[in-house]
Amino acid sequence: MATQGAERYVGGGVRRKEDPKLITGQGTFVEAITPPGTVWAVLVRSPFGHATIRRVNLKPVLGAPGVVAAYSGADLADEWAAPLPMAWPVTEDINIPEHWPLTRDKARYLGDAVAVVVATSRAAAADAAELVEVDYDQLPAVVDVQAASVEKAPLIHDAFGTNKCYIWAISQGDVDAAFAGADVVVKERYRQQRLVPNAIEPRCVVVQSVAAAGEFTMWSTTQIPHIAKITLALTMGIPETKLRVIAPDVGGGFGSKLNVYAEEALCLALARRLGRPVKWVEERSEAYHSTIHGRDVIQEIELAASSDGKLRGVRVRLLANMGAYLQLVTPGVPLLGALLYHGCYGAEAYSLECTGVFTNTTPTDAYRGAGRPESNYAIERAIERLAREVGSDVVTIRRRNFLPKGELVPSPAGLQFDSVDYEKVLDRALEMIGYDDVRKEQEARRDGGDTRLLGIGLSCYVEMCGLAPSQVLGSLRYAAGGWDAASVRMLPTGKVEVVTGTSPHGQGHETSWSQIAADALGVDFEDVTVLHGDTAVAPLGMDTYGSRSLAVGGVAVHFACGRVIEKAKRLAAHLLEVSPDDLVFEAGSFSVKGVPAKAKTIQELAYAAWTAHSLPEGEEPSLEATYVYDPPNFTFPFGSHICVVEVDTETGKVDIVRYVAVDDCGTVINPTIVEGQVHGGIAQGIAQALYEQAVYDDDGNLLTSSMMDYLVPSAVEMPWFELDRTVTPSPTNPMGVKGIGEAGTIAATPAVINAVVDALWHLGVKTMDMPASPENVWNAIRRAKGGN
Amino acid sequence: MIPVSFDYQVASSVDDASRLLEQGGEAAKLIAGGQSLLPLMRLRLTRPTLLVDIGRLAELSYIKKSGDGIVIGALTRHHDLEYSSVLKRACPLLAYVAGLVGDPQVRHRGTIGGAVAHGDPASDVPSALLALEADFVVRGGKKERTIAATEFFTGLLETALRPGELLTEIRVPRLDANKHGWSYQKFRQRAQDWAIVGVAAVVEKENGSINRAAIGLTNMGPTPLRASAVEQALSGGDATAIGEAAERAAGEGDPSSDINGSADYRRHLVQVLVRRAVEEALSR
Cβ separation of B193 and A775 shorter than 8 Å? Predict the structure, then answer.
């Protein structure tokens, strides 16, 4: 690769170029798109968790004001060339239910869509939807993953004869021997409660067709326009070439928009049937049922250790709630953490078995961290339990077990961890929190009989980003590759267009990709425009999820810039009549070694490449290049977080009084964006630890179906975040970047819960369920004191 | 999120509002700040056929001294109560409680009259007004009457307001900083939430002992309520009486179990919060 210009933007606090339009209301969200002649779709959803559908009567609807059409599942049956997509059949014998945009036989969760009403206004459609008569025979429901696993449980999908979806297992080393030879075995059971993603923008779909050409354009609040295009083309029987998917400004996702939804297929079908633009707008309360949920896993983790706390074996069993159907990657989500349950620590043997189970609940799927918050929570809580069992302290036991420092370190589960240096972040976090002083204050409060006890919780994490080496995905039976693409085009006026296959929905890719390209090409940040989120503009891409964008898509931008520079160099040599080897590239200019005045700027070369009046023999006009980057390995960000809580033992209320986070995401492109990701990530981790929980009753009614009962915390509930970073570049890619979108969430939850347990351990509180709500904490204290 | 369609009339005066309300019949509703009504309408849980908007009746938005009390127009926004210098001096409990309602947006729209007339047992304002022994002035047509706060809340979301009547004024006493101590203990998980339990206390002090205490409870039953057993136990006692008196709070009301707290937990919490409220009231 050519010599790069000095870094002017990478690592600097450049302001996000997306923000002026977003914060002045000039963004374009799907809800703002209404082509002339649009009709609105409203779905009729099952009010029961489990019910046979006897009859759907649409007659009362058809004469209602504004109504254009109304359909049941049976009415639309011939619209589908295939069921809704599921891209991750994790085992050969996995049970995959047919999942249609409207159900025909049974409603399998509260919110399962039964009919659709289309009208000339959204209000008319909402009014008319109330007139649909559906005769249901209510069936016994099962919502709990454990209850659904037993033999007599009501069957969600009768054809399978079981609610089991799959059993996936992995084993490395001799696990039985490790446990048989252990001095100490710690066995813990944790519940990852069900979470509702709650992106700030609910979902929305608009489909416009050109009937005469058989073409469809779909605007959707999606993280994955490319994957949606391919999979929906298959579901709809539309040639891939005739479907264009546009994700304009998208207001957050957290994984909930890493999916292909019934409403997208429905709007396509309705547009095809009716020949009019069709729009569906999700209501917030509707989203609690109709958008995927996260987590809902029961974890059993066993640690085998020697008497000095040295880990020997890790054995894990998971019971993962799939919900009623399999969405795009539902079965694979628990497995994204399946190789990480040993955390930052070494062990000679490792095994994990995960059982996926159907229940009468909204399907689960990826939610910020997807599998890794679960794994990190389990190991970080269990390691503190082990410390207490062997009489070690929570810092020492971690140091004793950390994987050794190194560029590439084999992990107990068979991965190659990159850039390992776990002591460094722990040292820094302990220093920032003033660990010894906090412990002293904790002791003083205990001794003084204070009703507001302090607890200190640690969380050391390593996670896995940069999804993903395509070959690895193949071996995990995932249906697509893990590469991403970038095109870099120098325009005749010297401006730059970067086309990315990633699809930002709040992350700031336009800014970060501009920084990368501007530094690589030696142009101004303002001269770079990043294009994304439209399959007609960016034909190649694998989209945005799993903290993959920078470590895959950003690296593709870097490599594409390299190709542009190579070509520019050949052209410069031709125009300057020297050998390419005689040129140096610096600050956007190619100059002849020793003769700095003899030079061509990259802008001049872009113009020359465009006019093409004089090109080297065999060179194509236009200064542009595409690079499709398939990462050779995952990247492995790590860090240490420490949380100090104050627990009011009279009420059970937990307040976070200090929160220190030291993260290592390798090279930092934009520190402000990284800090924002860490803030948001920690907030979401704290939310799981203390506030949020989706609760179903036994009939399958969601009791937490609004923000009054599902407690999304606000800024007021957050502590001041004390952040620092270490920089250990990833050897996996030339930029040394790793990923930061999920790290905070992965780290924070066990830090908080460990702190709560730490505050109350001496009272006899040995464990704590999430969320550690005041009542849960109060109950735990009461039980420990020997009350009921 | 789209309500069923409804008619809408703007009231030009209190009389006009009263007339429109009466004409509209049973399915007519007054709307002031709309902070309780609109969410219910958008979820289609309530379906009024007519909304009578009294939100523009400027004559009902005021905070004034009057005799030995303070009179507050029913349309005064929570935000204005929170920042009222008159209230902060003469009835700081109410200014403080107004600042705990919902979030800033809610406080800029929601009104004291709305909070009272809605009669939500989980709302902070009614229990504070109970502890303050407030009076409510209501008008129906030409007839005006005054109802004591203790008589006003009759059942779950039910009040002593008759059809066609609207709440026009809230009267609270002036607290004497040398004599009266006050506190409001709002227990909730998030700042913006309804109280899981709330306790309002107004304590009349004399030489370090409690002459008289008025305790209002939030979310401890179908209505906002007074903790009379606690009040009796406190009366004439000093700081040492607080612990035992607070325990009596567990027997007050009939709290429900819901997703945010079981009845058992509420009965426990109310004891802690009553104790803290009375201690704080006594200390200021």
Answer: no
